[in-house]
Amino acid sequence: MIFHVLTIFPDFFRGPLDHGVVARAIEAGLLEVRCHNLRNWTYDRHRSVDDRPFGGGEGMVLKPRPVFEAVESVLPGRDQQRHRVVLLSAQGRPFHQTAARRLCRYQELVLICGRYEGVDERVAGHLADEELSIGDYVLSGGELAAAVVIDSISRLIPGVLGNEASTLAESFSEDSLDCPHYTRPAEFRGWKIPPALAGGDHRAIREWRRMAAREKTARLRPELLAIEETGNEQRVIDEGGRTE
Ligand code: SAM
After folding, report:
1. pLDDT tens sequence across 233-244
2. Is 91 near ligand 1, meaning CB less than 6 Å away?
3. Same domain, 81 and 189
4. Domain-located, residue 160
5. Are residues 21 and 111 in the same domain?
6. pLDDT in the model for residue 244
7. What number of other Cβ atoms are within 10 A of residue 233's Cβ?
8. Of all protein residues, whose CA lies closest to atom 12 belonging to ligand 1?
9. Of 85, 146, 176, 177, which has fewest CB within 10 angstroms of its CB?
C-alpha cells in the first residue's frame, strides 16, 4: 500500500514512522510513505500555499490550487476502486478502527494535511473522498493525524504483523477493548497476576480474557457495549464518507 502525504512539513514524518512495526513494514516493502511538499505546486517567489480568508477574520487558509494540483499529480489516473483521498480535519467523521479496516483495502491513500485556520472548503467538497478527524480536539496541523492514520492502517496490512490473528483480538475488533496483559514476574510489589493466567488450562485462560475484556470495556468505555447492543450504529457511521 502507498500512502501519499500532502504537507507543508514533509520532514515531520522522519521521526514518527521510523520505528517499530511501521519502519519494519516499510523496510520489507509492504508499504510506502511518500511525503510531498505542497510548496512544489506553487508558482510565486515566496512559494505561498496560504491566503487571507474571504469575509475577513483571523488567520490564513490553505489555498485550493496547490492541493488540487498535488492530488492530480500524485494520482494521475485516479480510480475510485484503488485510490482514496482523505482530508484530515477536526470537522471530519471520527476515525475509528472500522474506518482503518475499510481504508486498508485501497492500494493508494492520499492524506491531505491542513494547517492555519484550515483548508479551502472546495477541497472537502470537490477533491477529497472523505474528511476524517482523529478526535474531538483541535491540532495545529494534519500531520500528527496523518501519522496516526498511517500507523493504525499499517498494522492491518497483511504481513505487517508477524501474527495476523493478533489484530483480531485487539481492542475495537469486536466492539470491546483488548483484555489486560501481564508478563513476568508473577508477583510485583505485592500485586499478583490473575490465577487463571498462571495455569495451563487454555479454555480457562480464554474465558478469563473474554470476561476481563468485557469488564474493562464496561468500566472504561461502556458506550462500546451499548453500541453492540443497539446494532453497531458506530460501524454504520464509520462506513460513511463522501460517495459520488
Ligand atoms: N479552524 C479549524 C477548526 O476549528 O476546525 C482548525 C484548523 S487546525 C488549526 C489546522 C489543521 O489541523 C486542519 O486543517 C486539519 O488538517 C488539522 N487538524 C486539526 N485537528 C484535527 C483533528 N482532530 N483531526 C484531524 N485533523 C486535524
Report:
1. 445 445 554 433
2. yes
3. no
4. no
5. yes
6. 36
7. 11
8. 141
9. 176
